Amino acid sequence: MLNQFYLIKHSVYQFSKANHPQINSNAPQAPQARRAHWVTFTLIAAGISATYATQSLLPSLSQAAAPSLPVFSNQVTTEWKNPDPNSTLKRVISRTSDYSVKIGDSLSLGKRMDIGFETDTVSHLTDYVVVQFLRGCSFTSRYHLETKTTEAVFDVSHYSWSAIEPFKHADWIVDSVDKDPVYNSSDDEGLARHFAYRSQPKIGGFEKSQGEKYFGVSAPVSPWIYVVDRPGTVFVGDAGEDAKNISLEFQTCVYKNSEVPNHLSSAQAVGEIKSVPLYCTTWASSFIYNFETKKFERPQGISPLCGF
Length: 308
Fold this sequence. Notes:
This protein has one helix spanning 4-19, and strands spanning 37-43, 48-54, 71-81, 89-103, 106-119, 128-144, 149-153, 157-160, 163-166, 168-174, 198-199, 213-214, 224-229, 233-236, 242-256, 279-290, 295-297. The chain is mainly β.
C-alpha cells in the first residue's frame, strides 16, 4: 500500500497543499470545523512509515519531532513452497509484524507486511508480480462523555488509483496507487512494474541492513525480490479527546505477470483480473482506541465504526 515514490510526492505535497494553509499560503483556507486531516508518508531514511496529523494536532509538519526507530514485535513468518516442480516460481515468503514508533511524547502503532518470492534464476523474477486487495476504513474517533458513545469521523484519505480518496471501502478494492493493479507499481512515472520492488543478496531476507536495493536501480544478484506494506499508524491526540484508528483487511497474492492486465477500469474492478493467483495470504491491520480503558484494542474483522 505505501509506495515510497508516490507518497512523498502526492500524499504530503498535494494533500497538504490543498488542506494546510501553513504549508502553502496560496492554498484555500481550511474548513471552519477544525477537523484533523491526517497525512501519511514514508520516512525513507528510517525505513518506516509514520502518520502525522495536520491542522488541529500539529501546527505544521516542519515542527514535527523526529521519530524514533521502530520497535517490532509479534512477528509471524509463513513460507509456501510451490508444489509444481516445473514452475520457475520456487517459493513465497510473507511476514507480518507489529511495530511502535515514538514521535515526541506520542506513541504510534502500526502493522508491517513483507512478501517476496524466489525463482529459479534472476531472469525469471519479472515473470511474477504481487497484487494486493483491501477493504475497511481508517478514521478519527471522538468520545462523548455525556452519552458514553464514540463517534467516527471519516477524515482520513489515501492515494489510490492516481487520486486522493477517502480511506473507506466497504467492498474489496485493488490496492494500488496507480491504474496498474500490480502492488508497488510505478505506472504513473512510466517505469517498469518491478522498478520499486526490493532485492538483496540473502534469499528470504527483508531487512534493509542486508544490502537492500531497488530493482529498478540495481539489478538483483540473487533470485529474490519483495515488497513492503505499512498501512499507516494509529495514535491518540495530544488532549486525549480523539484518536486515529485503522480497521483494514488484506489479501496479498502472487500472480504470473503475463496474466495481470496492465490497467483496470477502476480500483473496484477486481473481477477484471481473470486469472487464478498462484498464492494468496490474508492479514489485517486493526487498531481501535477504547476511550474508557485508554488503550488500543485489536478486534478481528472490520470495526462496526466503519459503518458498513
